[in-house]
Amino acid sequence: MTSVLQAHELGRRYGKRWALRECTIDIPAGHVVGLVGPNGAGKTTLLKLASGQLEPTAGGITVLGGRPAGGPEQLAKIGFVAQDTPVYAGLTVSDHLRLGARLNPRWDAAMARERIARLGLPLTHRAGRLSGGQRAQLALTLGLAKRPELLILDEPVASLDPLARREFLQHLMEATVEHEFSVVLSSHLVSDLERTCDFLIVLADSRVQVAGEVDKLLATHHRLTGPRRDPDRLPADQHVVSARHTDRQSTFVIRTDGPIHDPAWTVTQLSLEDLVLAHMDQRTAENRRAALEVRR
């Protein structure tokens, strides 16, 4: 299967601070990709690198087989909706559609008009008079009518109420089915990703912690609960993602492709939220240990 995005040892630095580093991922085409992580993890930096708004400090990235900012033809393949759902407050809805038609060679005017009519957005209203949900839907319309092969969404529903967020994501999923394009959706709300995404990337501390198809990740991650045990005593094929201990009990989240035979363990499956939090907790624990070493 062809890749919609490939990155190898990708990094971006601002002064002395790495916003993203050692990022190696391969995203097959045809997926709705959830990009999740805490604030400051590097999500927006990765998306701006993928859309050609930033140049890498290290490593390389290709999107749809070419450099993200490799020219007008390449840029036309990528749609981008930023976190603040950027629209022009002083322009009417109709003005936005005309602007989209002038700037985008693959513009689908019929689709844009149909979506605006279905959403009930008045063509003569200025964007500044629309609600947050309406502005988000207008921004999504502009991204979809561009007819991209890849649509990148940087936390587009972060500021919306639950109803507006659900409507936005529902319309997004309908569009992916109808027009068959790939999506990378950044969010810190795992519940949104559970409803929409079939491929997951977890970023923490500016690094990729895990990436893969959601079904496979859930099938290969397990929670083990049993008598207190040192993680070094677990089989070599059981990679420890996170660990918690009391005086008598250990709880591990592990990743393994093989069966778990040890009868001492109670084995339970993870939810997507459990999986995400385990990988974020792993990085947090490593950072705490590194800080202690520095202090010593």
Automatic annotation (TrEMBL):
Annotated ranges, domain ABC transporter: 5-230
GO MF terms held by the record: ATP binding; ATP hydrolysis activity
Record InterPro entries: AAA+_ATPase (IPR003593), ABC_transporter-like_ATP-bd (IPR003439), ABC_Transporter_VariousFunc (IPR051782), P-loop_NTPase (IPR027417)
Keyword Aminoacyl-tRNA synthetase: no
Keywords: ATP-binding, Nucleotide-binding, Transport
PROSITE patterns xrefs: ABC_TRANSPORTER_2
Gene3D superfamilies, alphabetized: P-loop containing nucleotide triphosphate hydrolases
Full protein name: ABC transporter ATP-binding protein
UniProt cross-references to PANTHER family, sorted A to Z: ABC TRANSPORTER ATP-BINDING PROTEIN ALBC-RELATED (PTHR42939:SF1)
Record carries keyword NAD: no
